[in-house]
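yo, Enoyl reductase (ER) domain-containing protein is done. seq:
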Amino acid sequence: MAINEKNLCVVLNKPLDIVFENRPVPEIGQGEVLVNIKATGICGSDVHYWQSGGVGSFIVKKPMVLGHESAGIIAAVGPGVTNLKVGDRVALEPGVACRMCDQCKQGRYNLCPEMVFAATPPYDGTLCNYYRHAADFCYKLPDHVSLEEGALIEPLSVGIHAARRSHIRAGDRVFIFGAGPVGLLTAAAAKAAGAAHITIADITPSRLEFAKTYCTQSQVLLERPQLGEPNMDYARRTAAKILETEPLADVVIDCTGAETCVQMSVLLTKNGGSVVLVGMGAQVQSLPISEISAREVDIKGIFRYCNTYPMAVNSIASGAIDVKPLITHSYSLEDSVKAFEHARDGTDNAIKIQILG
Ligand SMILES: [Zn+2]
Ligand SMILES: [Zn+2]
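structure:
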C-alpha cells in the first residue's frame, strides 16, 4: 500500500477547541504496525474530553488526538511482526498493556498500571490517517465483516466484559440501565451469552423505541426525580413501580453511572444475584447496603475489557451479534467537528456516529 505523506489528525487543542493538524506519518519499530485508519466511532468519553477537558481523574493537559474506537488497513509492518501483513483489515484494541506485571500475567491486563490507552491523557488517539500500534493488539477482520463493524468492536467489548463478569447463564433475566450504545451492546452480549429476557430502561423515549428493535424484550421509560426528592426515595418509589410488571432480575447492569440507577440496580436484583457497574458517574455514591448484605447481592466493577476482541470478532462474523443497526450516522474525517457536535446534541435519533477516513 502506498503511504500518503498526509496524516491529518483531529486534535483536542484545549476544551471546546478541536483543530486539524497534519502530523508526520509515525515511524514503526519492533512488533509494531502502521494502520491506515478507516472508521472511528465517537465515544461519550471523546465528547467529555472535548466539552470539559477531562473524564474522572483523567485530565487533558496538552493537545491530544481524539478517538479510540477504530478499524483500518495495515499499511506497513515492523520487524518481528508475523501475525499481520500489508493490506489486512483489522480492528484496533486501543489499550496496550505492559505484558509483564502481575495483572497482565494473570490475564487481567485491563488493570495494568502501565496501560497506554488511545485518547486517554497523555496518549494520542486514533482519529488520524495513520496510527502506530502494537501488532498483537490488532485483530484481523474476516472479509465479510466491514471496517465500520470493526470500529464497533471496542464498545461491544465493554458489553462482553460486563456479561462475562456477571456470569450470565442460559435462561437468566437481565435488567440494563441506559439504552445508549454501551447499554445496547451489553444487551447484545447478554443475549449472546444466553439471557432469556432482557429489559432496558432509559429516560429518552426515542432510545427505547430503538431498543424495541434490538436485543431487548421489554423497555422501561424512567421519569426524572421530583424537585428536591432524595435519590434513594426516588429509587425505592421507581423500583417498586417497575416491580409491578417485572420480576427481580438475576443480573442488573448499570450503564449510566447515575446514583439513582445504581440504587435501583440493587433493589431490582434477585437474592444472590449480581449488579454490574459499567457506567462511570459521581465518584462517591450512597447505596442501600442493608439490601446488599441481607440479600447477598454481589456488586462488580467494570473497567473497560480484556480478552474480548477475538470473541467479539467471531460473534459478529457468525451473526451471533449484529452491530450494524447501531451505526446511524457517518461523517468524513474533514467533517469531524460536525460529527462531534452531532454526538454532543444526540439529534436525529443518533446512536453511534462514525468518522470515516
Ligand atoms: Zn469508547
Ligand atoms: Zn501490565
